[in-house]
Each structure stands twice: as structure tokens, then as C-alpha cells.
Design a protein that fits this description.
The complex is a heterodimer. By secondary structure, chain A is an alpha/beta fold. By secondary structure, chain B is of the alpha+beta class. The longest helix of chain B has 16 residues. Chain B starts with 5 loop residues before the first strand and ends with a helix. The chains are: A alpha/beta, B alpha+beta. The structure holds flavin-adenine dinucleotide and NADP nicotinamide-adenine-dinucleotide phosphate.
């Protein structure tokens, strides 16, 4: 079986790749930087004695995505799982002042993610097999002043995955939405919080388990499901006055 | 993207001293270069898994590069055993991946939680020093990010002086990105070992002399014992087992049970737990676990090499004051005068050492700032008793210097510049090479400043 990892330089994505490699799958490691993708692929091939190929892709080069997916399958064979892991937080302040910056955040987290999912879905659907994992965020569950460009793009992505799941259900293709809380990665390095921060390894294990049991949505760490339940329940007229 | 610097309190394994540093955690060579470029006016230093004991990996008001996520294995040749990997790869990872395939790191310290970058910077030695030398003897090429921001590949032929200064270079010649290291083929995940109870120091040297055909030797000694029992202990010797060897119960099992009575050292953090009495009791128990005479068994490799790894954070058991390890090497002397004198002074002051380890080094010459010299090495752990301990160690330094010996810098937090210069006569040559590659002091450490290796 073959697994495509999109955004492999993320510590979470790399750990997910390792989980699949450990299960004996072949990997295709895709990242923005070709040299980095190759280093990660070498590492996985050595550690797990498996096949790991690599190439560069850009989430915002929309018109290349279908060809990219086809080229991955021509090299590695039919994909059984694809993981859309890339994302970018951006700088909220910068996005407020400069629409080009805001658009970049939307393009990476939403448009690019959708574009790749569509390409993958177009290949999985007629075959009636395959699994898609999309990494969204708890930040997408409610809009907040501190990160609403990123949050809305992730929220829209989660909504998109919901629709796609509904469409692909008939085709026996599973779609798993992963809503992450804090995970110890480059994105959160040095973040100040009293909440526990999950390791990329534990997160990856939970993600792969969720995909393998055909779960629709995973909150990880799981307590975020409770936190977001409360946050979503706060009436808007109260919420708009808060700074969370 | 510019580098995200995060303020953290860092310390070596001895938790003394503790230093605040701005830390970056690069995940790729380009992020590493970016961090070096973003250092501003500060000096920088790599930080691996923090298993050196003192201040070799620390720098007040400096910037730290945490190497833990530069941990990719880049190439492996199963024919020859050569592995090329990034500097943050841990020995534990190498063992996990390669032991099932019949390979083992050429040299391992008493813990598997060190990075290959740290192993090179301290040019570490293991129980097989008398046969296989140090870590650097098995490294053929090092990729180094130097002070100018340039990446240099150095080896014995290309930039040989930089290579020489970097092996055992304490992180002060640059940031190691990757290296090629030759793994040793082994036929079994077990160790064919013997424990020999020795009753005093002379017996240790007799057993050591008679153990030349064992690839791995080390001895624990009870340094609370004085007089005729001085140097009483347990000598361990072994080799990688044959393919058909099967595990047996060994005295090591007892040691591991004793050690494992703490699952994690942190709940035991107290300045009172490890005192004269408990240290004595532990050492007594350790001795008694081992049968008198010689006992042979097939033991688990992890228990043989890394008994202390069975307890997470055992260093916390010394309390918030931290502890110091004092490791020395002195040339051979038929009377073993310095060793006796050191042990006598330690037991006289009553500042017992919880763990004491003694081993004879081989005759290899490593040079530079590398620690091992032909002779015998002794490592002692002391709770940080403060000025009284520092005074004792200063007097021991004087004895060591007089005998032509030296202190291990990878474990040091207090050696004087004056003693250091006598102990490491090649320091000037080392410094000249370093100054050529880093004329403006981009790389610095507390230890380097104290000993005059950097300004
Ligand atoms: C229980 C225990 C037993 C031990 N037994 C032994 C033993 O038997 N023999 C022995 O020799 N040592 C022994 N040690 C010491 C240990 O092997 C060394 O201190 C080793 O260097 C620790 O590696 P580290 O990755 O933790 O590095 P750190 O302690 O984090 O750093 C050590 C030095 O390496 C430098 N460094 C780390 N990475 C890089 C890099 N990428 N580029 C440049 N410089 C770098 C740092 O700047 C610092 O100067 C032992 C330590 C413990 C805790
Ligand atoms: N860490 C958390 O707490 C957390 C919480 C919720 C959700 N998430 C989500 O988890 C996923 C992984 O993030 P992370 O935390 O591991 O952070 P990360 O290290 O910043 O990972 C982000 C990844 O996205 C890639 N990327 C960015 N822009 C791209 C583009 N235009 N084209 C292709 N790839 C691009 C990055 O590649 P480069 O290396 O080339 O930049 C990197 O691999 C992201 O989707 C993130 O939103 C993380």
C-alpha cells in the first residue's frame, strides 16, 4: 500500500509518515523544498527499510496539482492514503493590513488544500477506494480576533471535507478530518500556555488510528473537543466582547 | 522566515549551573543557517540532549541551537556499516534501527540518550576504549557550519586541521550538521559478560590486566571504603555475544531491579535524599547483589551498557542543588599513588560519591582537547555540597596535574584555567586553529570562557 504525505517538513506530517512506514507501507514524501523532501524520504527509507520517494510541490500552484497526483501514482503505484498536512498560520496583524498576506493564508490553508483534495478525489472516486486525511484545526471552530484568517481558512477546509466525505461515501472512500489543538511543532515552539502540548509522535499515532478505523472527525488532544464545545456555546453577543 | 528565539532555562545533566538562553530549534540545514544569521550580536552554541554534566554546552547571554529536530538519517551502506546522519540523531535511535539488523554504534557512553553531535564534540569513550578508541576514530567526514556561515566538509585529507579541532572540539569550531560514522557489525543483541567481585584496588588492576581479551571492561567501585578495602567493587567485562546466545539471569538483573525502584527521579527531587547514609547503603547493596568470585552470563545489552537509563531523570534525585561529576585520567603508575590518594581524600572528607567508575584506557593518542590518555580513568559523582566540594576538587586537580593527568571537560563545571593549560598541553595549537575559523567569537561556551579557549 502507498501513502502520500503533503507538507512532510511538518513534524506532525513526518511522524504520520513514520507510522505508515512502520506498518509496512511505501511512502511518497512531498514538501515545498525538494532537498528537504529527499532528506526526509532517505530517513524513512533507512529507518523502516521501506520504499520512500520524494518530490517538491507547492500548495498554491493550483494548476499543477492534478499532474502532481498522477506523477506520484506513476512512480509509486495507486495511492491508498493521502494526507493533506501543510498549512500556514501567517501573521494576523500583517493580514489585516495587507490583503495579499491574507490571501496567502487562505490560498495555502483552504484553496490549495481543496485543490489537492479534488485532484485526489478525482482519482479515488472512480476506483471506489482510497482514504483522505485533512489536517484542520480547533482554530477553525470559532472565529477569533487573534487569528481569524487562519481560523476561517481551516474552518472552511473542515466544512469542505464534510461535503467531500458525503460525496465520496458512495464511492467507499473515507475522509478523516483532524482538528488539532496544540502540538509541539515549529508553529507552536515557545508558545505560552497552561494547556498540555501534545508530541508530534502521539498526535501521529492518533491520526493514523483514526484513519484506520474509518473515523470521520478526530479532535486531538481529545480534551479540545470539550473546550471547543464550550467555546462554541458562548452566545455571540458575549463572545464578541471577549479576547481569547 | 526569521528565527523564532525562545527563552529557556538550560542545564547539563548535573543541573549545575542552570543558565537562561534564547533557543532556536531548526528542523533543516536552511533553518540552521538562518538561525546563525539571525544571532544578532550574541554568540551561539549547539545543545544536543544535555547529557554532558557541567557547563560545556551552556552560555550565559548566549543563543542556543537545539539540535534535537535535526535528526535525519541520510544514507546507510549495509555492506560497510557507514551511516551518514544529521547531528541531532540520538544513539538510542541508531540502536533501535540498527541493532535488529546486526549493527551497533562503534562507541557508546553510559547512556544511550546522547546525540552524534554531542558524541563528536566530547569525543566520547566507552567500555571498549582499550580496543576501539573514541567516537572520532570511527568518523570519516564531518559537515560543519562555520562562523562565516559557510558549510565546510572536513576529514583527514580535506581541511584536516579543522577536522582535528572539531573532534573533541566542545562545539566551539562550528555547528555540526552531519557526519559519517561507521557502525560495528554484531551477531547478537546480547552481551556475553562476566562480573568479578574485587576486594581492593590492587585486585582491580590485576583483573583489568587479565581482561585484555574482553572488548568491553569497566568497574564500579565503592568509594566509601577505606584502608584495606579501598577500591572494593565489581569488575564487569564482556563482548557482543555469538549469534546463538540466549538471555540468562545475571547479577545485572538485580542491579536493574535496584535502580528501577525509582521509575522517574523527579518525584524524589530533594537535597536530602542522597546523603552519606543512603549512598553507603546503595553501594553496599550493589556489592552484595553480585556473587563473590567470577560469574558469567548472557545479559541484555541495554542493561550492560546503560543501566541508569532504566530510570528517567535520575539526576533529579540529587535535588535542586544539582551534582557534579569529577572524571579524571592519570598515566599508569605501578603503585597507583594518585588513585589511592584521590580515593583516600574523598573518603576522608566524607563527601561520598554515589557512583564511582574506574577503567583502564588503551594506549591510543587522541590529541587536541580529547580526554582519554594512556592510563586509568576514575569518575565520581558528588551532590553539589558547595564550597567544601569545590575546595576538595581543587586539591584533587593539583594531584592530577602533578601526575600528568587531566579532568574530562565534558563533565566539568569548575576546573581552573591554570590547571587546564597544564592538563591539555595542545590547547594553544587547538586555539590557533579555532581562531582561524572563528576569529570573531561566534561560538562560545561558559566552559570555553573559563578555560581561555575563547575570549
Ligand atoms: C549517565 C551518563 C553516562 C555517561 N557516560 C559517558 C562515558 O562513558 N563516556 C563518555 O565519554 N561520556 C559519557 N557521558 C557524557 C556524554 O556522553 C557526553 O557529554 C555527550 O557529549 C553528551 O551528548 P549530548 O548530545 O547530550 O550533548 P550536550 O551535552 O547537549 O552537548 C555536549 C557538547 O556538544 C556540543 N554539541 C552538541 N551538538 C553539537 C553539534 N551539532 N555541533 C557542534 N557541537 C555540538 C555542545 O555544544 C556541547 O559542547 C555520560 C553522560 C551521562 C549522563
Ligand atoms: N502545531 C499545532 O499546534 C497545530 C494546531 C492545529 C493545526 N495544525 C496544523 O497542522 C499542520 C502541520 O503544521 P505544524 O504544526 O507541523 O507546523 P509547520 O511545521 O509549520 O508545518 C506546516 C507545513 O506546511 C508546509 N507549507 C506551508 N506553505 C506551503 C505551501 N505553499 N506549499 C506546500 N507546503 C507548504 C510547510 O512547509 P515548509 O517547511 O516548506 O514551510 C510545513 O511542512 C498544519 O496544517 C497546521 O495548520 C497545527
Amino acid at each position: 500500500m502507498s501513502v502520500l504525505i503533503l507538507g512532510a517538513t511538518s513534524s506532525i506530517a513526518r511522524a504520520v509518515a513514520e507510522q505508515y512506514a512502520k506498518l509496512g507501507h511505501s511512502l511518497f514524501i512531498a514538501a515545498r523544498d525538494a532537498a528537504e523532501a529527499e532528506r526526509i524520504a532517505s530517513d524513512i527509507a533507512i529507518r523502516f527499510d521501506t520504499i520512500a520517494k520524494s518530490a517538491a510541490f507547492d500548495a498554491t500552484a493550483f494548476d499543477t496539482h492534478l499532474d502532481f497526483v498522477d506523477s506520484v501514482e506513476s512512480q509509486l503505484g495507486e495511492l491508498s492514503v493521502a494526507v493533506v498536512a501543510f498549512g500556514a498560520m501567517g501573521d494576523q496583524g500583517e493580514s489585516e493590513g495587507d490583503f495579499a498576506a491574507a490571501k496567502r493564508v487562505i490560498d495555502i490553508n483552504y484553496t490549495g488544500a481543496v485543490s489537492l483534495c479534488e485532484a485526489l478525489a478525482s482519482r479515488f472516486e472512480p476506483r471506489k477506494r482510497g482514504a483522505l486525511i485533512g489536517i484542520a484545526s480547533v482554530a477553525g471552530d470559532r472565529g477569533r480576533a487573534s487569528n481569524y484568517f487562519y481560523g476561517s481558512a481551516k474552518g472552511a477546509f473542515a466544512l469542505y471535507l464534510q461535503g467531500l466525505r458525503n460525496r465520496l461515501h458512495k464511492a467507499n472512500v473515507t475522509v478523516t478530518t483532524v482538528k488539532l489543538g496544540f502540538v509541539d511543532t515549529r508553529m507552536t515552539f515557545g508558545i505560552e500556555t497552561k494547556l498540555p502540548i501534545a508530541s508530534p509522535e502521539a498526535t501521529a499515532q492518533a491520526i493514523v488510528n483514526a484513519q484506520r478505523r474509518g473515523a470521520d472527525t478526530l479532535y486531538y488532544p481529545q480534551f479540545w473537543w470539550g473546550i471547543m464545545g464550550i467555546i462554541k456555546a458562548i452566545p455571540e453577543r458575549v463572545f464578541k466582547k471577549l479576547s481569547l | 522566515m526569521s528565527t523564532n528565539w525562545v527563552n529557556k532555562k538550560l542545564a547539563g545533566w548535573g543541573r549545575y549551573p542552570v543558565v537562561e538562553m534564547l533557543c532556536a530549534r531548526p528542523q533543516s540545514p536552511s533553518e540552521l543557517r538562518q538561525a546563525l544569521a539571525d544571532r544578532g550580536a550574541d554568540s551561539v552554541l549547539a545543545f544536543g540532549l544535555g547529557r554532558s554534566y557541567g557547563d560545556v554546552g551552556l552560555l550565559r547571554h548566549g543563543k542556543a541551537i537545539l539540535t534535537e529536530r535535526l535528526d535525519r538519517m541520510l544514507a546507510f551502506d549495509p555492506e560497510s556499516g557507514w551511516l551518514r546522519c544529521e547531528a541531532g540523531v540520538g544513539l538510542a535511535e541508531i540502536i533501535k534501527v540498527f541493532l535488529p539488523r546486526g549493527f551497533f554504534p562503534p562507541v557508546v557512553p553510559g547512556t544511550q540518550f546522547v546525540t552524534v553531535g554531542g558524541a563528536l564534540a566530547n569525543n566520547i569513550h566507552g567500555k571498549n576504549h582499550h580496543v576501539d578508541g573514541c567516537w572520532g576514530d570511527h568518523v570519516r567526514r564531518v559537515e560543519l557550519l562555520t562562523a562565516s556561515g559557510e558549510i565546510v566538509f572536513c576529514d583527514k585529507d580535506h581541511e584536516p586541521e579543522l577536522f582535528w579541532a572539531t573532534v573533541g572540539g566542545l562545539g566551539l569550531t562550528g555547528l555540526v550538521l552531519s557526519m559519517e560514522i561507521r557502525l560495528t557489525p554484531v551477531h547478537s543483541p546480547h552481551i556475553d559478560m562476566e562480573t568479578v567481585r574485587v576486594n581492593h584496588l590492587d585486585e582491580f588492576f590485576e583483573v583489568s590486566a587479565a581482561s585484555a581479551d574482553f572488548t568491553h571492561t569497566v568497574s564500579w567501585i565503592d568509594c566509601a571504603k577505606r584502608g584495606l578495602k579501598m577500591g572494593r567493587g565489581v569488575f564487569m567485562r564482556g563482548r557482543h555475544a555469538a549469534a546463538d546466545a540466549t538471555l540468562e539471569k545475571s547479577p545485572l538483573t538485580g542491579v536493574l531491579d535496584l535502580v528501577k525502584s525509582f521509575a522517574d527521579g523527579r518525584p524524589f527531587e530533594s537535597n536530602l535524599l542522597l546523603n552519606k547514609l543512603t549512598i553507603k547503603a546503595f553501594n553496599e547493596a550493589y556489592f552484595r547483589i553480585h556473587p563473590a568470585g567470577t560469574h558469567r552470563s548472557i545479559a541484555d545489552l541495554h542493561g550492560f551498557f546503560f543501566p541508569l537509563d532504566a530510570v528517567d531523570n535520575w539526576n533529579y534525585a540529587y535535588g535542586s542543588r544539582g551534582f557534579l561529576q569529577y572524571q579524571i585520567a592519570v598515566p599508569h603508575d605501578p603503585e597507583h599513588r594518585v588513585m589511592r590518594e584521590v580515593l583516600r581524600r574523598v573518603s576522608d572528607t566524607g563527601m561520598a560519591s554515589f557512583l564511582a567508575v574506574i577503567k583502564e584506557f588503551g594506549d591510543q593518542q587522541h590529541g587536541g582537547l580529547s580526554f582519554p590518555i594512556p592510563g586509568v580513568t576514575l569518575a565520581l559523582d558528588f551532590p553539589n555540597y558547595g564550597p567544601a566540594l569545590f575546595a576538595l576538587l581543587d586539591t584533587l586537580d593539583a594531584l592530577v596535574v602533578e601526575a600528568g593527568g587531566r579532568v574530562y571537560l565534558g563533565k566539568d563545571a569548575r576546573l581552573s584555567r591554570q590547571h587546564f593549560r597544564i592538563m591539555y598541553p595542545e590547547w594553544e595549537r587547538w586555539r590557533a586553529v579555532r581562531d582561524r575559523w572563528d576569529p570573531n567569537g561566534v561560538f562560545k561556551s561558559e566552559l570555553g570562557k573559563r578555560l581561555g579557549l575563547v575570549d
